[in-house]
Amino acid sequence: xxxxxxxxxxxxxxxxxxxxxxxxxxxxxxxxxxxxxxxxxxxxxxxxxxxxxxxxxxxxxxxxxxxxxxxxxxxxxxxxxxxxxxxxxxxxxxxxxxxxxxxxxxxxxxxxxxxxxxxxxxxxxxxxxxxxxxxxxxxxxxxxxxxxxxxxxxxxxxxxxxxxxxxxxxxxxxxxxxxxxxxxxxxxxxxxxxxxxxxxxxxxxxxxxxxxxxxxxxxxxxxxxxxxxxxxxxxxxxxxxxxxxxxxxxxxxxxxxxxxxxx
Length: 263
Hints:
Blueprint: H1 3-26, H2 30-37, H3 57-60, H4 63-71, H5 73-78, H6 82-91, H7 102-121, H8 137-148, H9 183-197, H10 202-208, H11 215-234, H12 239-262
Helix pairs in contact: 1-12, 2-7, 4-7, 7-9, 8-11, 9-11
């Protein structure tokens, strides 16, 4: 066996592990991070624990403040942030630094935001809910055309694809805003209707404040998002690791054949 082949065989297991590690890391969501790092001290609607109940937190604090206390709570102490100091006084301890990265902190912020939106959109007990939007091929195609800009909004607002991506056949989106593929699943139909009728995000507010979407446009976009979510759920969700196994299995087969030939 040549030195190159020995070296390749030696490091192949490490390469396989790296593939799996990257695949697992790519799948980590804000909800995953919250359940892994935060539930020991916090709930969302379940009352206080070691720290405050975080239900409605995004309407009480700025998202930048929430990100700061997740990523580097010590900084809020050093600048004598009054809200942070009041929380320390109330609960008897500082928020610990859990080693959460900037990116993961923002994932948690996004999860808290989406949870608050879904809760705000939910109807009180006993109050009739709006009829759910039926997903028809015509409505989905209307929503897709509006999303990608093939059809203009009535008030000439920018198409969604200018800022957002959504994994759907024939759709290529921007990356200024978050990927919307799982938005319907995360915040529910009522939550998505609420966002489109009254955008809570600064970028969307500026873009659509004077160019609001019509009810028909909103229904079409929700139907499109719902169809995208259903298609994703129906597809095999974890194809990448299995593709990696097949790829490296093929490599091992080639090495095996090569080994026989050099003998």
